[in-house]
């Protein structure tokens, strides 16, 4: 591997930083200010161009209210595997959705719901809606509809 080629783990960790930052509605500038770097450095971390050192990752985790291990997880129940890194974020449908306007809006609204029972009911409702859709193609939102990600 060329020294200038981003490492797959660095890319993955950076994408998790970006996803968490966006989920919390934090700008690159604000994160940079909180961790003591430039926003350009945050961009490089998020793209995996620059590696994030252990102490810096700890600080990022504190600012983003996550544990350092969060940035290595594929999902809460499945640890990061090197084999899984062959699939880039662009081809990962979950990551693609979480980075979308709708995904961000849905997640931002959902994390504001503190009632565990209500959260369970919402998940059950969404699962039922998805199941009732079956194999029908997904309808695209009309150009006049908007989603407010805030």
Please explain how this structure is put together.
The protein has 150 residues and is mainly alpha-helical. The protein folds into 2 domains: 1-99, 434 Repressor (Amino-terminal Domain); 101-134 and 145-150, no CATH class. It is built from 7 helices and 2 strands. The chain has helices at residues 8-23, 28-35, 39-47, 54-63, 93-99, 101-111, 116-133; strands at 73-75, 78-79. It has a two-stranded antiparallel ribbon. The model is unreliable at 76-80 and 82-90 (pLDDT under 50).
Short description, anyone?
With 150 residues, the protein is mainly alpha-helical.
The top level CATH class name of the largest domain: Mainly Alpha
CATH superfamily of the largest domain: lambda repressor-like DNA-binding domains
Following the backbone from N to C, one meets helices and strands in this order, namely HHHHEEHHH
**Strand tally:** 2
- Number of separate structural domains: 2
Largest sheet: 2 strands, antiparallel
Taking all residues together, what is the mean pLDDT?
80
Low-confidence stretches: 76-80, 82-90
CATH architecture of the largest domain: Orthogonal Bundle
User: Which percent bin holds the helix content?
Assistant: 40-55%
Based on helices, strands and strand pairing, what is the structural class? mainly alpha
Distance between the termini: 40 Å
Radius of gyration: 17 Å
